[in-house]
Write a structure and sequence with these properties.
Elements: H1 3-8, H2 19-35, H3 40-47, H4 51-79, H5 81-100, H6 105-118, H7 122-137, H8 143-171, H9 175-178, H10 180-194, H11 214-232, H12 239-258, H13 266-270, H14 273-302, H15 308-314, H16 316-329, H17 335-353, H18 362-390, H19 396-422, H20 428-451, H21 453-463
Helix pairs in contact: 2-7, 2-8, 2-10, 3-4, 4-5, 4-6, 4-11, 4-19, 5-6, 5-7, 5-10, 7-19, 8-16, 8-18, 11-12, 14-18, 14-19, 14-20, 16-18, 17-18, 17-20, 19-20
């Protein structure tokens, strides 16, 4: 082929029409995870509920998401991303209606559970669809699309509290639930019109709902729920939950190793150590980032004495630096180098938090948020890119769901650590205790990145020019 012909042949590109439904579906979960933060106080006043009860509005969504991500990811692998995406859109609308009309806190918590399950559809559907389209079009490393998803999710997670505050000011706390109705409608329409039709799978590859490994699903859900209940309130009163979780985990393991069509193929995952490391790194990074989100924000208001508005402004550098970092460095094929840089920055941020005090100047508070923006923009994207290449293509949906499960496990641990550190008040002493926990998690992630030879080889392979 001549050089002129090569220049005339356009490089394969990802179809842009798929981006609106993919991006909108991916942001629903982080949006609802973060904007509830500013609605907790008015919800508590509306239902005369203590903080220990309204905290379940956060934990319920995280718990439902942690359990639902691998389950929904499995549905994506079996029935196709478009079908699952459309079902998730409908459930999002249902959760919005139920939450906006909730007569009591119990119904509102139930709406958050449905919302957590519904918004699980976006990420595994997006990852599976990207992989199928990339394979079909010969895109070996769709880093640009993965970067765009990561930047969008990071942006929404950071501006979520501001969006929630605007909704509360305009329509009260119910507006933070009601907004999911129009969002669900738009997702449904975009998914119906723009997403490609799911390929018809062989009969044996697409079992009916009845033939799905429900024993594995139930035992996995029970194991995860039991462990998470204990983590959220560790102590003797919740020891039964830990015992139940361990017993269910044993049942799950035996079941998945014996059944022909497992819910999560443990035999396949057992030999994939690079993927295991990616999951643990995601967990460690999530502990640090969510400890900052929950703990630092509370300390700014309670310990430092800032207003909610000023506290929100103090987090803007985090969002801005994270956005720039993901856009500039996110496309680099040096995944391992990005992770080393990111976890090092997380460790520095946690160390800076040890220097916080009630008289810390505003420039120092902005600096802390700005430094955290560096890992915020890199870690999620780097782990996402690693999983894309490490997971078996046929199980990419379930593998992507498990990545989110580990991230939300980290969020729940961060929530528990924040409660332990602060107790009744978000004071400076508690902030310093939380910072030490963040240092431990960040160092764990850094050690894993430094010692991961498989990740180094992947980075080298991706850095080579395409033949």
């Amino acid at each position: 082929m001549s050089r002129a012909t090569q220049r005339a042949t356009p490089a394969p590109r990802f179809p842009r029409k798929l981006l609106p439904p993919i991006l909108l579906g991916a942001i629903l979960n982080p949006l609802n995870s973060s904007m509830i933060a500013v609605a907790l106080v008015p919800i508590a006043l509306a239902f005369d509920a203590p903080a220990t009860e309204t905290a379940w509005l956060v934990s319920a969504l995280y718990l439902a998401t942690s359990v639902g991500q691998p389950l929904v990811g499995r549905f994506v692998d079996l029935y196709g991303p478009k079908r699952v995406f459309l079902v998730g859109s409908c459930l999002t609308m249902l959760a919005g209606v139920l939450g906006a009309t909730a007569p009591n806190l119990g119904v509102l918590i139930a709406a958050r559970v449905i919302l957590g399950l519904a918004t699980c559809a976006g990420y595994p559907s997006a990852m599976t669809l990207i992989r199928r389209v990339a394979d079909r079009r010969g895109l070996p490393n769709p880093a640009g699309i993965l970067t765009l998803i990561s930047v969008t999710v990071q942006t929404i997670a950071m501006v979520g509290p501001a969006v929630g505050g605007l909704l509360v000011d305009l329509g009260g706390w119910r507006a933070t639930l009601a907004v999911n109705v129009p969002l669900g409608i738009v997702c449904l329409l975009l998914g119906w019109w723009l997403l490609p039709r799911d390929e018809r799978a062989p009969e044996e590859a697409a079992p009916s709902i009845r033939l799905l490994d429900w024993t594995g699903v139930v035992s996995f859900t029970t194991a995860l729920t039991g462990v998470l209940l204990f983590i959220m309130q560790p102590g003797m009163p919740r020891l039964w939950a830990l015992v139940l979780g361990i017993a269910a985990a044993a049942v799950f393991t035996v079941r998945e190793l014996r059944t022909r069509t497992p819910f999560i193929d443990l035999r396949m995952l057992a030999g994939n150590r690079p993927l295991h490391a990616t999951y643990v790194r995601a967990f460690a990074a999530s502990v640090t980032s969510y400890s900052f989100l929950f703990g630092y924000t509370q300390w700014l208001e309670d310990g430092r004495g800032l207003t909610a508005t000023v506290a929100g402004v103090a987090l803007i550098p985090n969002f801005a630096i994270g956005l720039v970092t993901a856009s500039v460095l996110g496309r680099r094929p040096q995944i391992r180098a990005n992770l080393i840089l990111a976890f090092s920055a997380q460790t520095v941020v946690a160390a800076l938090l040890l220097a916080t005090a009630t008289d810390s100047p505003l420039w120092f508070l902005f600096l802390v948020a700005a430094v955290l923006g560096l890992p915020q923009g890199l870690i999620g994207l780097a782990n996402q890119q690693a999983l894309y290449h490490q997971a078996v293509p046929a199980a990419l949906g379930a593998s992507s769901g498990l990545l989110r499960t580990f991230m939300y496990l980290g969020a729940i641990v961060a929530s528990a650590l924040t409660g332990w550190a602060f107790g009744t008040r978000a004071d400076t002493t508690g902030m310093h205790e939380l910072a030490w926990c963040m240092i431990a998690a960040s160092v764990l992630g850094l050690v894993l990145a430094l010692s991961d030879g498989a990740l180094h080889r992947l980075s080298v392979r991706l850095s080579r020019p395409a033949e």
